[in-house]
Amino acid sequence: MTRPDLALGLLLSTALLAACGQEAAVNSPTEPAPAIETPAMATPGVDSGIAGSGAMPGTGPTSFVGRWSRDVSWCADPAGNPRTLAITPVQFAGDGQRCEIASIDQAVNGYDANLQCQTGTGPRTERVSMTVAGQVLTLTWLDRQDDPVTLTKCTTLGDNSTKAPALPVP
């Protein structure tokens, strides 16, 4: 190989390598990574480790995870205050009760969860539909005649803010 051929080969290799990853965006440390989108995510009934969740392990429904309250000023109350509801991927806690999420299914507009609750009167099973739109969670208790409950998200589980969270700009 002659020097011009070697130089041309190195130049082409560099150009090809530089073109790799042009479309790959890296999220900043303050922004969450995008959701994992796979065909299995759209297929109901894929085992996630949570019975009936319809999602792959580690990619389950997170839109409802956080602290929620009927009045955003209550978000400043300490965690565990009955006026806020803390929801994790496996548990509801608030209003004097703690419920384990026994199963969760993706529904048309959100998720339907079966809860195993421990209350002052003993164990109880509850079914709830959860729909999130922006920073608003609507809970509809499927086995009760109650009206749906609308809650505002406290920005994180440890939030002490007394202001409503900013809505994302479209």
Automatic annotation (TrEMBL):
Keywords: Signal. Residues 1-24 form the signal peptide. This is Lipoprotein.
